[in-house]
Amino acid sequence: MLFYDQCFRLVAVDGGRSGKCPTQTPSHDSPARRRAIRRVRTFVPLRFTFAHSIAAGLLLALSSPLALAAPPSHIEALATVGESVITVQEYAMALRSEALRRFYHFRPPEKEMAAFYREVAEQLVERTLATQEAKRRGLRADPESVEQQMRLVRARLAKRNEPQHIDEQFWVALRKQIEQKQLVGKLREQERAKIMPTADRLRDYYRNNPEKFTEPERVRVSLILLRVSPSSPRTAWEAARREAQQLLERLEKGADFAELARLHSSDASGAQGGDMGYVHKGMLSADVEEALAGKQPGEVTAPLTVLEGVALFKLTDRQSARLATYEDVRERAAELWASAERERAWQALIAELRSSTTVKIEEKYLTPG
Fold first, then answer.
1. Do 13 and 136 belong to one domain?
2. Are both 12 and 110 inside the same structural domain?
3. Do 187 and 100 form a contact (C-beta atoms < 8 A)?
4. What is the pLDDT of residue 270?
């Protein structure tokens, strides 16, 4: 029996697999993850089993990274779409690719596994239907572009010193995938060209979707940050809180916030008197937003502990949510309308193709376990 391992490769139950998984799961507390979190929001408060039984000996060759198994004696079919066959190998490649794209740990949560299996299978069916329609319309993949992409994959595998006895079925599946994506792209372009907005349609879209053109409430805030390293001892944090409280008392007696920010703030905004400009809801942490919610322009929060130290925030201005005029957002309305209409038209085309095509999916491949 074979099963999917953490790298979305088919491996035998005896442990026979092709090397280590080069895609390591990032740590929840890795330095890279902490840096990414800080970039998105500066001020914030302080054996997976992807099991699936299939015929023994089936090759699962995954596009990147690649894993190998013994060649199968015959091709297993996931589904038939009209006269076309979607192989289990194509399905496995798609499962891995989609998992790498969508999930932080490169695998779906256990409770989402069955839905994920089915969703990817349906994507392959839709891609096959679209490919068939593209060919009926006389569209063709660009051979030179296909070969170029094939060469890139070969070069990448050679650079990684992957095994050279790659089964031919992998290259067949890869070429088919590249050609199909090109054809689907060309078909989508044809369909997009049919969607042309009119002034009346755009105005109706604007009137019917006010939430898409409403600028949310925003506030202008200034900051004094007394920086403390997260790894600093408690005494350093207590000292920063005492200093922040002293600054707040000076402010309550009439001291100028901008001047104190220039003298004491460790944040880059200190050079501008602490001015951070306008921010929308969600750009600051929930604790900071809550503290500012009850303030009037000109008022300052109590000292707040944030990721990078202890901070004082001053509310400079508050602007209520505002519906933009049609003239100001006409181009945006055209983009949104066209995007929604193109997707609606595309889904209608796929539904029409499916209703006129016999599709049979082997359910046994859609059940994890």
1. yes
2. yes
3. no
4. 94
Please provide the distance, in angstroms rounded to a whole number, between the alpha carbons at the two ends of the chain: 12
In a domain, 88, yes or no: yes
Half-sphere exposure of 361 (CA within 13 A, CB side): 17
> What are the tokens at 36?
């990414």
19 and 167 share a domain?
Answer: yes
Minimum mean pLDDT among 51-55, 74-78, 283-287, 292-296: which range? 51-55
Q: Above pLDDT 70, what percent of the chain?
A: 78
Overall domain count for the chain: 2
Indicate the length of the chain as a whole number. Answer: 369
pLDDT in tens, 182-212: 999 999 999 999 998 899 999 999 999 999 9
Strand extents, DSSP E, 271-329: 275-280, 304-306, 309-319, 322-323
d(CA 244, CA 240): 6
Structure confidence at residue 18 as a pLDDT band (50, 70, 90): very low
Whether 181 and 314 share a structural domain? no
Better pLDDT: 105 or 48: 105
Structure tokens at 56: 């023994």
Same domain, 106 and 248: no
Tell me, yes or no, whether 175 and 72 share the same domain. Answer: yes
Structure tokens at 252: 């309550």
DSSP letter string, 311-357 = EEEEEEEEE--EEPPHHHHHHHHHHHHHHHHHHHHHHHHHHHHHHTS
In a domain, 6, yes or no: yes
Q: What are phi and psi of 361, to 5 degrees?
A: -115, 135
* Nearest in space to 120 (alpha carbons), one of 368, 369, 366, 350: 366
Report the alpha-carbon distance of residue 1 to residue 338 in Å, rounded. 49
Q: Is residue 178 part of a domain?
A: yes
Is residue 174 in a domain? yes
Q: Which domain holds residue 79?
A: 2-24+47-191+360-366
CA-wise closest residue to 174 among 8, 96, 63: 63
- Of 103-107, 182-186, 228-232, 291-295, the poorest mean pLDDT is in 103-107
Same domain, 163 and 15: yes
Ramachandran bin of 332, using left for φ above 0, alpha for ψ from -120 to 50, beta for the remaining angles = alpha
